[in-house]
Design a protein that fits this description.
about 350 residues; mainly alpha; 7 strands
């Protein structure tokens, strides 16, 4: 396995996320807040993947603003730019170049069988049918005559693999929904190494220390999501206290009045989980504390707890988002560091594939 970087003994961790607006409380407690704990012991790269974002329709001005919103929220949540590298995917040359090379060693059937691709295709109004050559064919069901499948949705996992391999990342934090994509990345790295000689480290997925999975306030059987159409189902880290109060007050609870987590009490279990993640108290301790008290007391205390914890994050964000020059500088410095690392990998890949040396143009 190739050495990561002779001058850097720290494991390289790469985390990428699309710039999709405000982070949810689930994003914060389940991931971002805990990423800050990785900064001291690892060389961390945080990519804002705007190239991935255009696989679905987006307004150019909104996408551009979302990038700055994303980096401002990251910093407000504790990702110190002095201790990590934050960059925009489109600012680093190499992501799409490596993706093309990897695409040329990727069987199309592997991409068509990706679970997320099939899910996205289904949302566009298409359905899949198995063909004799084991590839998937898609037929329109007539529900959405204007819908179409763009090639970006199909090749999305290859670009994701390129994002990872371009930095020879050792570790990649992954959720359950991304494991299939990481496996493809590992397969492509091994395939390239076998075909052209050892080049890429084989990245490992890992689950960093996280808070409990935060569920929807409207349907606690589903994960909290920023795409939820019910505006009271999702808490955002930038919500004002009055918004937090309304959403927690309207949060689904369960039959009965006992404040106790259980397999049949999804609503209360979710609220206790949020409380535990913010207060540091165990569920057992909270159940004992709230014994004999009603749901109203739990919701009132939880509202105050959330508001207190998010207050400094919200204030820091409001301060940062006004400093666009500072945010641009953070991204420029991050891109510069990322580009230097990417150049080493890309030049090695070009040489092994057989591309002629690129002459410097003066």
């Amino acid at each position: 396995m190739p050495a990561n970087d002779e001058q850097n003994t720290k494991p390289v961790i790469l985390t990428c996320a699309q710039p999709t607006g405000k982070l949810t409380l689930g994003n914060y407690l389940g991931a971002v807040r805990n990423w800050s704990e990785m900064l001291e012991q690892n060389d961390c790269y945080f990519g804002i993947v705007d190239l991935h974002a255009i696989t679905t329709p987006s307004h150019p001005a909104t996408l551009r603003q979302n990038v700055y919103d994303c980096v401002a929220q990251y910093i407000a949540c504790g990702l110190d730019p002095k201790k990590c590298h934050q960059f925009v995917q489109s600012h680093v040359i190499g992501h799409t170049e490596l993706a093309w090379i990897l695409t040329c060693i990727t069987p199309i059937g592997e991409l068509q069988r990706m679970t997320q691709f099939k899910d996205k295709v289904a949302k566009l109004g298409f359905k899949s049918t198995e063909s004799t050559d084991e590839d998937l064919k898609f037929t329109h069901d007539g529900a959405r005559p204007q819908a179409s499948i763009n090639a970006g949705l199909l090749c999305y996992p290859v670009l994701m693999a390129a994002d990872i391999l371009l930095y020879n990342a050792d570790l990649v934090p992954v959720g359950e929904d991304q494991r299939q994509h990481l496996e493809l990345c590992r397969d492509l790295a091994q395939r390239f190494n076998h075909q052209y000689s050892e080049t890429f480290s084989i990245p490992k997925g890992f689950v960093p220390k996280t808070g409990a999975k935060i569920m929807s306030l409207a349907d606690p059987r589903r994960k909290m999501s920023k795409s939820d159409k019910n505006e009271r189902a999702t808490l955002y880290i930038l919500d004002e206290p009055n918004q937090i109060k309304k959403k927690i007050s309207a949060a689904v609870t369960d039959s009965g009045s006992e404040i106790k987590a259980g397999p049949d009490k999804h609503g209360i279990a979710n609220l206790l989980s949020i409380h535990s993640s913010l207060s540091g108290q165990s569920t057992d301790e909270l159940e004992e504390y709230f014994q004999g008290k009603g749901y109203g007391v739990l919701k009132s205390e939880l509202t105050e707890l959330i508001s207190e914890n998010l207050h400094p994050v919200r204030d820091k964000y409001k301060e940062l988002i006004k400093e666009k020059a500072y945010l641009k500088n953070v991204l420029a410095q991050g891109a510069s560091t990322a580009q230097k690392r990417a150049n080493k990998i890309l030049s090695k890949v070009y040489r092994k594939v057989g591309f002629p040396d690129r002459e410097r143009i003066t």
